[in-house]
Amino acid sequence: MDERETVGWSDAAWLNPPLHAETDGDALLVTTRRESDFWRTTSYGFVRDDGHALLTGFPSGSAVEVEFVARFEELYDQAGLMIRVDAQTWIKAGIEVSDGLPQLGAVVTRGVSDWSVAPVPEWSGRRVTVRASRTGDAVTVRARCEDEPWRMVRLAPLDPDATAAAGPFCCSPQREGLTVRFTGFVLGPADAALH
User: Fold this and answer.
1) Which of 35, 64, 140, 185 is most deeply buried (CB count within 10 A of its CB)?
2) Could you give the domains of the chain?
3) How many angstroms separate the CA atoms of 141 and 93, rounded?
4) Sign of CA dihedral 188, 192, 193, 195
5) What Cα–Cα distance (Å) separates residue 44 from each residue in 41, 93, 158?
6) DSSP assignment of 47-67, as one string?
7) What span, in angstroms and rounded, lies between the C-alpha atoms of 47 and 191?
8) Distance of alpha carbon 2 from the chain centroid
9) Which H or E run contains 97?
10) 3-state SS record for 130-145
């Protein structure tokens, strides 16, 4: 992949269409369905696979960025970037409300889900970009708020032969009606280095 290209909102396909989605200029406004989520088993004992994700191909050697703004208010409100192979193999990374604060985190699922978070209250209501870069047997996830430096979020395994898709996602496990304004969806070459 030689250069970055914007993915048109209509050029990707919904996994679990949201309650509402409409374009607003170059942005896509997405409103979640009631109690939507992605999670597999760990600690909670349930499987949820009904969150909303707008996905396009994510081959090895490429990177994808998703940019968004949202007012996260309820427990587990979340938005960001999803990478998906199938219902048992996926990664989601972005902002999620937990312990009363917006948290920058990721869930890596390989049969069962794990979860890691770090508080970012200063990111509330601001433009966030999540970037995933796929090289070899790994995905490197980074994020930033507005034009601040990139932060490392996660290094996760992904089978180099797996057919994966990626794009913006959002969920609201405790309610209906989280609205997320997605302002960017870009594909490009994978990052040259981990650090």
Assistant:
1) 64
2) 5-188 (2.60.120.200)
3) 8
4) negative
5) 6, 19, 24
6) EEE--EEEEEE--TTEEEEEE
7) 33
8) 24
9) strand 89-98
10) EEEEEECCEEEEEEEE
Q: Is 82 within 8 Å of 91 (Cβ atoms)?
A: yes
- Report pLDDT for 1: 47
pTM of the model: 0.96
State the amino acid at position 80 in one-letter form.
G
Q: In whole angstroms, what is the distance from residue 121 CA to residue 134 CA?
A: 29
How confident is the model over 31-52, as pLDDT tens digits? Answer: 999 999 999 999 999 999 999 9
Residue 73 structure tokens: 């208010």
Side chain identity at residue 173, one-letter code: P
